[in-house]
Amino acid sequence: MIPLCPHEKGTRRVATPDHPLPLDSGEFLEEVIIQYETWGKLSPSKDNVLLICHALTGDAHVCQDAPDGIEGWWGQWEDGTIGPGCVIDTNRWFVICSNVLGSCYGSTGPTSINPHTGRMYQMDFPIITVSDMVRAQKRLLYALGMTQLACVMGASLGGCQTLQWATSDPLEPEHVFDIKQLIVIASGARLSPMALGLNAVGRQAVQLDPAWEGGYYPEGGGPESGLSIARQLGHLSFLCPLSLERKTGRRFQNPLQAKPQYHFGIEFALESYLVHQGRKFTQRFDANSYLYLTRAIDYFDVEDALCDIHRLASLKALHVLSYDSDWLFPPEESHHLCAKVLHSLPENTHLQVRHQTLHSSIGHDAFLLERDGLHQFLRDCLIDA
Ligand code: COA
Question: For the segment 23-75, what is each residue's pLDDT rounded down to a tens digit?
Fold first, then answer.
């Protein structure tokens, strides 16, 4: 079947021994590959680029490539978020999404081969930050010949990357981009202490699992129990009391069971649900990557740096969307951030800063599951773009 929108999937080498990638830690990566996908056609003046940044354990496959293609993490064409004729219309926009540095979905990370040893980096991979991820992403776009971005958008860690795009990078100030608007969804300028704590406990679960082996576990092995526990903890933070009530409430796993059976196995449907989510995750994600990515988001803090946002002369708008049941990135924090940015703007600025909170009974995952409000918000943002 002929695809309705052009699609390209590829990788780019963005660092070599002659041009290593500097990291915030002071270290360098001499070999960096970034995996990316694009949808739609680049306009002759290259002014229709829309960069989507993915969330913590996502990948570059945000959207399917053909009517019968594999669903992306933001759904399928018929969901109406992204694709031909959708809110993010791939007939209008040249959409690009790249896999973050440190991930295990095609870009360089702990599962890549360390050129100095010929073995997987595993825990020899250097500590990375969100700023390092964006630096690698900027190199990718430069390599692809794109320096104008009509829009950078993302949710959760993707929103953090989007905000990072608004700050200057002292390590590679020569990479200058002409950005028109930023769209930040269910995200913020830094993690709350609560979220930081959940990451810390999750990492302990991984690192205290004997099968972690200091991070040098064999291919195909690894700390399954620890990673599963870490994911279950993370998964709870993507939900909210109402969504939990609706999914399983306090029901017993066995629908015929009327009273406790007095053991430590699975009694409640919630326990079974979480184990299922944890198990599914261990089948698709590398434990060391999980450590590196959660560490990167821990370090992320651009609240002060964002007060310099007006320095992006081409930037017309910063749009921020929150959900009232999201306790990972609560709306009050986004409100505070936008107020702080607004307060710091010079008087004659034309930069529009807009914060909207949507009602949701889903929590943080609303950006993946509740389309109507999201679509209206995105339509409002993209109409003038
Ligand atoms: N015991 C075992 N499994 C159970 C269960 C129980 N009592 N009750 C439900 N399940 C299983 C279902 O069979 C289904 O399994 P499947 O996905 O393998 O088919 C799954 O749980 C349904 O999960 P649920 O969370 O209810 O689905 P949803 O439609 O509300 O959400 C996703 C779908 C993909 C968003 C969600 O499952 C998910 O993965 N969320 C995390 C996404 C994420 O990473 N967000 C953070 C970004 S930073």
Answer: 999 999 999 999 999 999 999 999 999 999 999 999 999 999 999 999 999 99
Angle at which helix 224-238 crosses helix 193-207, to 10 degrees, equals 160
| 282 neighbors 227 (Cβ within 8 angstroms) | yes
The pick from 368, 370, 371 for probing ligand 1's pocket by mutation, whose C-beta has the most ligand atoms within 8 angstroms, reads 368
Rounded distance from Cα 375 to ligand 1 centre (Å): 22
364 catalytically annotated:
yes
Cα 274 to middle of ligand 1, angstroms = 9
Pairing of strands 94-98, 352-358: unpaired
pTM of the model: 0.97
Q: For the residues of 51-111, what is the DSSP string, one character each? A: EEE--TT--S--S-SSTTSPPBTTB-GGGSSEETTSSEETTT-EEEEEPPTT-SSSSSSTT
The sheet that has 7-15: what strands, in order across it? 7-15, 32-39, 94-98, 49-53, 148-155, 178-185, 317-323, 352-358
